[in-house]
Amino acid sequence: MKSFNLDTTVTVCGGTPQEPINVSNSNDTYVVDTLVDLELPDITVTDSDGTVATVPSMENVVCTPSGQTSVRVSNSDDTYDVTTSVDLELPDSSVSNSNNSYVNALPATEDLALPNINFTDSDGTVTSVPSMEDIVATPFYTIILADGNTVLWVDSQENVTKDASNLVSVWGDKSGEGNDLLQATGSAQPLWSTNGILFDGVNDFMKAAAFTLVQPEMVYFVFKQVSWTLNDRIYDGDISPSMLISQASATPALNMYGGGSLNNANLPLNTFGIVRCLYDGANSKFIINDTTPITGNVGTNNAGGFTLARKGDLNANFGNIEVKEIIIRKVADSATGEALIYQYLSDKYLPTAEEVLTDGSTVLWVDSEENVTKNGANHVSIWGDKSGQGNDLLQATGASQPLYSTNGILFDGVNDFLKAAAFTLVQPEMIYIVFKQVTWSFSTRVFDGDSTNAMVLSQFQTTPSLNMQVSGYSSSLSVKNTNLPVNTFGIARCLYDGVNSKFIIDDTTPVTGSVSTLSAGGFSLGARGSNALHSNIEVKEVIIRKVADSAGDEALIYKYLSDKYGI
């Protein structure tokens, strides 16, 4: 039998002899001769990172760059940062608002349209508002003042027609009722400033055209008495006397009149205040700022209009006043409505407690949550004065240092006390102290002056009595108050002002009387000025003022303390 191999020419099926096909790669690392169908084998690829894979022949291959085994994927601030050598699916992003009442997850790089939110206004109106847009609610007072009962409303910084000398001819009514206050005569025109509209007390006045105004009616009036003269008019009706306020009795008293009278002396001269007058016969009331209302029968006269700073129909009794704003309502406002209007005026015109306390009359102000220097055992060596006067309360002796806690500064009643370096403190002086009597012991001192019995608040007679006095215990020279139970925080207000002294705990009825007129010359807390008669008390805050605060200022300071401590 004859034999042959692939390298031998072969005649196939009697046809022309055929030579083998040579298949090779470019560098002859793969070479093969064949006369039959050839399937190229897979090749082995070793990647730059050492990975070995089998890859079909004749297919392009892309290797990982030399030395790089993975890819880093991160966002701009690296809060998302991952390294991967495989396909990466970015996680969903989380979108939420500050309280998580809205939470949404969305695929990375996908746009998100925030939904609208529903906003319920103070008047109950519901609107759909774009997210992330600032919202301003309608103040309640504007809703009340737009209820159709406001018949005159003037504001010294709006709708004022004046000449180059700032003399006012028209003070425009913003109530919508057209009751402008007018003065065509130049010599009788009041003077405008950014502080208000000033009536000179000689011949200045303004008057609205007659309009219907019958009881009940409510007047809100922001002004100050620049000077005081008996019977001078703050305002009057269309004729005189009809519905008015005049200067009466003695400075700085004001008289509200409508056929009968109510007097109120709670607005000192040259002090802006908010007057509220309800003319409603026997149910009338007269309030200055937030002092106690004066109530009674003011008569049944109707005003029929409004005249400012003069008798209604007579060229007489011109008031020397400065006016900021007036609101007249033909209704007896509800307690809520009245409170909201008063709050609007108070926020706009009256000083804040902080403004009062930084007016230069505060000589010592300590707060247990501020400026306290203490050691590791919380014993207090310095209680820093935040009045700006530098009257820190000090205690260098460790055994006499009171104990700090978040509840206040605790004096043990044995030997603890704090004392300021001597400073001038003469009557009148007003002390506000937030504290509790932990225990009660006769004659121990809550506070004193620089020396013994200079300016005292002591535990006296029987629990829980407290006694305010200067120099000794004479009953005629002390003011006692029993309205602070033991182990109860309260706010004491002590005015040292000779025969005009008063002692108030929280908002109970003031106890008044006489103390000596001696000066204190400093302040000791928790003991006598001479380091004796130590009291077991816990103190949150102390404020000392070198003035007899006005009723308005006192009320502001008291409210600041009562709001702060929930008393």
Structure description:
By secondary structure, the protein is mainly β. It folds into two domains: 150-349, Jelly Rolls; 362-565, Jelly Rolls (Sandwich), CATH 2.60.120. 7% of the residues lie in helices and 35% in strands. The chain contains four helices and 46 strands. Strands 13, 17, 18, 20, 25, 26, 27 and 29 form an eight-stranded antiparallel β-sheet that branches. Strands 30, 34, 35, 37, 42, 43, 44 and 46 form an eight-stranded antiparallel β-sheet that branches. The protein has a six-stranded antiparallel β-sheet with strand order 19-28-21-22-23-24, with no helix packed on it. β11 (117-120) and β12 form a beta hairpin. It is flat and about 140 Å long.
Question: Outline of this structure?
Answer:
With 567 residues, the chain is mainly β. The protein is 7% helix and 35% strand. Mean pLDDT is 88; it is low at 1-15.
Number of strands: 46
Q: Termini, distance in Å?
A: 126 Å
Question: What is the name of the CATH architecture of the largest domain?
Answer: Sandwich
Mean pLDDT: 88
Q: Helix content range of the residues, please? A: under 10%
User: In the residues, how many domains can be counted?
Assistant: 2
CATH class of the largest domain: Mainly Beta
Percent of residues in beta strands? 25-35%
Structural classification:
mainly beta
**From the structure provided, what is the oligomeric state, counting identical versus distinct chains?**
single chain
What is the general shape? flat
Count of DSSP H/I helices: 4
Largest sheet report: 8 strands, antiparallel
Tell me the CATH topology of the largest domain: Jelly Rolls
Which consecutive residue ranges, at least 5 long each, have pLDDT under 50?
Answer: 1-15
Work out the radius of gyration: 43 Å
